[in-house]
Amino acid sequence: MGAAKAKAKSETARKATADEAKAGIKAAQTIKVSGKDYLQVQGRILMFRQDHPTGQIHTEYITQGTEPDNPRYLARAIVLVNDKPVSVGHKMVKLDATRGPGKDWPFEMAETGAIGRALGALGYGTLSGDFDEVAADQIADAPVDPKRKW
User: Fold this and answer.
1) Neighbouring-strand partners of residue 76
2) How confident is the model over 117-150, as pLDDT tens digits?
3) Could you report the per-residue pLDDT of 35-86, keeping only the tens digit for each?
4) Is 147 among the domain residues?
5) What is the number of structural domains in the chain?
6) Domain residues for 59?
7) pLDDT of residue 148
8) Contact 41/59 with Cβ under 8 angstroms?
9) What is the pLDDT of residue 143?
10) In a domain, 150, yes or no
11) Quick one: how far is CA 107 from the chain centroid?
12) Cα dist. 134→2, 70, 141 in Å?
């Protein structure tokens, strides 16, 4: 077998292994949201790391609203590939939540949401769904059908 054929065979095997790993991540990290598949943020991060081992995800907190009637917190995530920004995501959470993860971990929830949105813009985690399946104020977190024609 020539060097070129060996290299091509090796590349095909590497791609097949990577595809199998992604399928495993999807299977392990996908949950149902309104009856549709939704890839959780930790699964999106794993897939991004697999595709871009030297890629970076930078997060920062932009603002903390202190108005008594509307306390909130805004986080931004910037995804970099080859040291260049390729995607940005934002997430705002209210600091006066009375239940759910926003009650106990609002800062972590904002950061995780921003990362998920930035990776979703790159196609990670946009497995299926429609815009009307989640509350209107959470539309950016809704799964998206990558085959849908806009």
Assistant:
1) 60, 90
2) 999 899 887 654 333 334 434 444 444 444 444 3
3) 777 788 988 999 899 999 999 999 999 877 667 677 788 899 999 999 999 9
4) no
5) 1
6) 3-141
7) 43
8) no
9) 46
10) no
11) 17
12) 54, 22, 8
Q: What angle do CA 67, 70, 111 make, to 5 degrees?
A: 105
CATH number of the domain at 47, please. 3.30.160.20
Taking the model in full, what pTM does it have?
0.70
pLDDT at 37 (0 to 100): 77
Q: Can you tell me whether residue 107 is helix, strand or coil?
A: helix
Angstrom CA distances, 127 to 37, 75, 114, 138, stand at: 6, 24, 18, 17
Instruction: Quote the Cα angle for 30-32-38, to 5°.
Output: 50
DSSP letters spanning 19-74: HHHHHHHHHHHEEEETTEEEE-HHHHHHHHHHH-TT-EEEEEEEEEE--TT--EEE
Residue 68 domain flag: yes
Provide the token pair at 70: 């509307």
Q: Is residue 146 part of a domain?
A: no
Average pLDDT rounded to a whole number, residues 101-125: 87
